[in-house]
Amino acid sequence: MSQSPEINERSISIPPNGIAADLRVPARAAGLVIFAHGSGSSRLSTRNRFVAEVLNHAGLATLLLDLLTSAEEQIDLRTRHLRFDIDLLANRLAEATEWAKGHREIERLPIAYFGASTGAAAALLATAKLPDPIRAVVSRGGRPDLAGTALAQVKAPTLLIVGGDDIPVIELNRRAFDELHCEKKLEIVPHATHLFEEPGTLERVATLASEWFQQHSTMNL
């Protein structure tokens, strides 16, 4: 990589629930990508932070957030049900989106979503519900099928990325792909399992995501 752009980074709390988030804004950012993590993960996920750094290098601001409060996280550790409450997660993502639209540093940037695991379903559901358009969506090892009937209402260009060895999730993504009526693409990364831990596979995810966000003129406004 060439020299990285200057990046303004800070940790914030997003109202009204006070969910924790990390905002990184490179100089002359062309867009904002909001990350929705998956089940059992957090904004500190090394995988999502790696992808975020690649996007920052490409000139995109990133907002990594915890969709659950710290108290809810403790409940979910015991019950494991909040991570699958897609309506709750989508509402939190929508709240973060509205916050971003009112934050002076990023308020004019077009917004896209990067979702992982159940966070992908939340991203697609939020995209379908929000009155203002989300410019693009990327799912990494996601469960877009959990967005249900909302898939048919998604208008944002959507890229589904799945590991080639993640057989059950490939089939779930194929079914969801058929339900999408927007511009769409399904990318299967060879030899990758669900978490893309194999050498070079996460780098491939980051490249695909960066290209998807950048190739759409909506992210270059």
Topology:
Blueprint: E1 7-14, E2 19-26, E3 31-36, H1 46-57, E4 60-65, H2 70-79, H3 86-101, E5 111-116, H4 118-129, E6 137-140, E7 158-163, H5 167-179, E8 184-189, H6 201-215
Parallel strand pairs: 3-4, 3-5, 5-6, 6-7, 7-8
Antiparallel strand pairs: 1-2, 2-4
Helix pairs in contact: 1-6, 3-4
Q: What structural keywords apply?
A:
globular; Rossmann fold; alpha/beta; eight-stranded mixed beta sheet; 23% strand; 6 helices; 221 residues
Q: Care to describe what's here?
A:
This protein is of the alpha/beta class and 221 residues long. The chain has one domain (7-216): Rossmann fold, CATH 3.40.50.1820. Helices cover 35% and strands 23% of the residues. It is built from 6 helices and 8 strands, in the order E-E-E-H-E-H-H-E-H-E-E-H-E-H. The protein has helices spanning 46-57, 70-79, 86-101, 118-129, 167-179, 201-215; strands spanning 7-14, 19-26, 31-36, 60-65, 111-116, 137-140, 158-163, 184-189. Strands 1-2-4-3-5-6-7-8 form an 8-stranded mixed sheet, sandwiched between helices. The model has no long low-confidence stretch (mean pLDDT 90).
Instruction: Summarize model confidence as the mean pLDDT.
Output: 90
Discrete helix count: 6
Summing up helix and strand content along with how strands pair, one would put the structural category as alpha/beta
- Unreliable stretches covering 5 or more consecutive residues: none
CATH fold description: Rossmann fold
Classified by CATH, the class is: Alpha Beta
Quickly give the CATH architecture.
Answer: 3-Layer(aba) Sandwich
Q: What are the secondary-structure elements, in order, as H or E?
A: EEEHEHHEHEEHEH
| Cα gyration radius (Å) | 16 Å
Number of domains: 1
Strand coverage percent: 15-25%
Q: Helical percent range? A: 25-40%
User: Strand order, biggest sheet?
Assistant: 1-2-4-3-5-6-7-8
What would you give as the CATH superfamily? Alpha/Beta hydrolase fold, catalytic domain
Distance between the termini: 24 Å
Q: Give a quick account of the main beta sheet: strands, pairing sense, barrel closure.
A: 8 strands, mixed
The tally of strands reads 8
Shape: globular
